[in-house]
Amino acid sequence: MPTDTTSPAVLEGRILTPAGWVHGRLRAGATIDTIEADATVRGDRLILPGFIDLHVHGADGVDIMQGGDAALTVARFHARHGTTSLLGTTMTAPPDEIERALHGVRSAMAAGDAQGAQIAGVHLEGPFLNVRRLGAQPPLVAGGTIEQVRRWHAIAPIRVLTLAPEIPGHLELIPQLCALGIRVQAGHSAGSYEDGVAALDAGLAGFTHLFNGMSGFNHYQPGMAGAALAHGAYAEIIPDLQHVAPGAIRAALRAIPRLYAVTDATSATGMPDGQYMLGSQRVAKCGGCVRLVHGDSLAGSALTMDQALRNLAHVGLSLADASDRVSRFPAEYLGLHDRGAIVPGKRADVVVLDTDLQVRSVLLAGRFLHAAQGEHHAVVA
């Protein structure tokens, strides 16, 4: 791996640009400088925009809710799997525990760790949820208030907030949250189709882990999932092929123009089978699946974004389409206009894959965060 990260980097291979694939050479400092077409360049390296994960609870044995330096550990682990930006995601918990997590995310953001994915803020998942659709969330729900959100937002920037829009007071809360620049999502919701449509009219931006933790679709009662399918422009989905069957993913892809992937990764991600923590809940990882120890509910995942990309390709998406759903669409959704695509002037957040879609190296703002053994790229003065 190059050590002089102040010099421009040169990557060669098949480069995915908004206009399509280019055989050639990418030159980058902190931002992408040039993309040079060269038909003589070998195509055994695929150069894609860095992945952007808007729903991450943990990895490598640690959980965002632990606070302290947990967020740094999480960001470093996911960077090795191609994630260059992420949101640290909370769980339903008492206010002091949520605040501990927020302080940890704030410290990690301030540290600007050179070896980890950039933490772009917080996804507040809970406590403004419906007790009837908790999934792996603990039963510590509360009604949302703008005063509470402002207090938490002052600790660390809340970029995405999940709530159940059918809870009294939450529909009126949505436009107030939008005014703070927060993207509001429906999730852990027992709401009806009509509740979902009303929330969208109030400013709801998306849906949290589509199909999971929400009232399901049937042709008599379309539910919250039906509102997403009929009217949603954006929604997140967990493509670990356990939370959602491939056929349901394909149906959602046809219905929701900018469906994007998230991992919902837990502290069990990257760890051997065994028991781990998800907030205050004990979970068990077995065979790549994470479930509550007491009960059969899925409890987040052990997914990484590079595996999400491979799974989307397995479902039948082209690599360019799959890339949009792990990079461009989440960047657009969050308003991160400086990343998510390989374009001169954008941040040099780049992942290099081999033809089996395995990560070979990762750049964050032009710095090499990770390179697989035997992987070499030019760094020129």
Please give the radius of gyration in angstroms: 20 Å
* CATH homologous group name of the largest domain: Metal-dependent hydrolases
**SSE order, one letter for each helix or strand:** EEEEEEEHEHEHEHEHEHEHEEEEHHEEEE
CATH topology term of the largest domain? TIM Barrel
Shape: globular
Main beta sheet: 8 strands, mixed
**In DSSP terms, counting alpha (H) and pi (I) runs of 4 or more, how many helices?**
9
Computed structural class: alpha/beta
**Overall mean pLDDT score?**
94
Task: Classify the helix fraction into a percent range.
Answer: 25-40%
- Which CATH architecture of the largest domain is right? Alpha-Beta Barrel
- Estimated share of beta-strand residues: 25-35%
Q: How many beta-strand segments? A: 21
End-to-end separation: 16 Å
Overall number of domains: 2
CATH domain class of the largest domain: Alpha Beta
As residue ranges, the low-confidence spans are: 1-5
Active site: 264 (proton donor/acceptor)
Keywords: Carbohydrate metabolism, Hydrolase, Metal-binding
Protein name: N-acetylglucosamine-6-phosphate deacetylase
Family: Belongs to the metallo-dependent hydrolases superfamily. NagA family.
